Amino acid sequence: MRRVVFNRKGGVGKSSITANLAAISAKEGIKTLVVDLDPQCNASHYILGREVDIGTISVAELFKQSLSFRLKNSNPEDFVWTTVYDNLFVMPASPELSDLQAKLEAKHKIFKLRDALRALDSEYGAIFIDTPPAFNFFTLSALIAADSCLIPFDCDDFSRHALYALLENVAETREDLNKDLRIEGIIVNQFMSQAKLPTRLVNELRKERLPLFDTKLSASVKMRESHEFSKPLIHFAPVHKLTREYVSLFKELNEASMHSENLAVNG
Fold first, then answer.
1. Greatest CA separation found in the chain?
2. Average pLDDT value over all residues in the chain
């Protein structure tokens, strides 16, 4: 299963959600890969540590090799890092992605990531893709490469209005470039249960029958602390409320995935 975490807005928790769901997946015994497409490299540093020099073993190099006949036979696995956590692997981002975008667009390399990840499907039971805060070449590459899309929503009115545009982006990508892409769900993030606005917004979205997950992720300083120590919550604070919410969300993902597979088999 290849999942992309997608939102054009920055600060909604894409990297945190990607890294923490992947870490829980690995903890559950599933060989899991994180693919980081954001030039800011937040998901990469969250898992690998900020002191790590990513160098040339990155997703940027995977894209670069598609621009050169000399490198075109490289194995996608060559750009994957082993982490200190069992079953968790990372194809890290690089700031160089920003400089590559125009070249890749000019060479029409939009399907490169899809082909690379298909080659890794037999090796990994789960692949989570983090995206930049923009609807650009790398985000579209991720939507084309993915089976499903997770959309973080951070409970303010600006995010609500932006949500409809995100849903249109996914629908257009599905119609034109990836007929198998589906929205797996909207993740309510940084939720404050005692505040009126978040509760009202969530209730209104449910009335619109949008696919919100039942699990909501609370706002917590514990997330910032885990970033500081470059340690996903399941390892940094395994019994914390926010960690338990992430585990609950991961279980929802699995249940939804199994339900979809059963529908495909029976229908």
1. 58
2. 92
